[in-house]
């Protein structure tokens, strides 16, 4: 293993984000076309996401919500993963933790995009947050030269 192994789960999460983007549009565009509240989807002007949300089924909105979530906390994951790779600390345990983080985020996406059980989502989010905290802690040890 080497210090850039952590880039594999990092790229995997980027790929997953684009899978969610495709899933979002694969459900959103047909729903917009079928909605009686949207007369001509191609002629919408100035509509905000919240206005559109009220005109689409919740199951369609769940995919968009998750796509947005993949641009929130995971941005910190990307930063810490790149930091660890640059520090040559992205192998071993840190790479393993990164894969766990990605797995938990994918599971969170699948739950939110399908059944959307809030408590299950919360547990997956909390666990992924703890893994992210561990990665940040490991980066801090090397960046600040902390000797434990």
Report on this model:
With 148 residues, the chain is mainly alpha-helical. The chain has 6 helices and no strands. Helix 1 packs antiparallel against helix 3 (58-69), helix 3 (58-69) runs antiparallel to helix 5 (92-113) and helix 5 packs antiparallel against helix 6. The two termini are 24 Å apart. The mean pLDDT is 93.
Secondary structure topology:
Elements: H1 7-34, H2 49-53, H3 58-69, H4 74-86, H5 92-113, H6 118-143
Helix pairs in contact: 1-3, 1-5, 3-5, 4-6, 5-6
Summarize the structure.
With about 150 residues, this protein is mostly helical. It is about 70% helix and about 0% strand. The longest helix is centred in the N-terminal third of the chain and has 28 residues, at about 5-35.
Keywords:
148 residues, 6 helices, elongated, single chain, mainly alpha
Uncertain runs with pLDDT below 50, 5 residues or more?
none
Cα(first) to Cα(last) distance is: 24 Å
Average of the residue pLDDT scores: 93
Q: How many strands?
A: 0
Summed up, the helix count is 6
**Structural class, from secondary structure content?**
mainly alpha
Q: What portion of residues belong to β-strands?
A: under 5%
Q: What is the helical fraction, as a range of percent?
A: over 70%
Rg over C-alpha atoms, rounded to the nearest angstrom? 19 Å
CA-based shape: elongated
Order of helices and strands: HHHHHH
Largest sheet: none
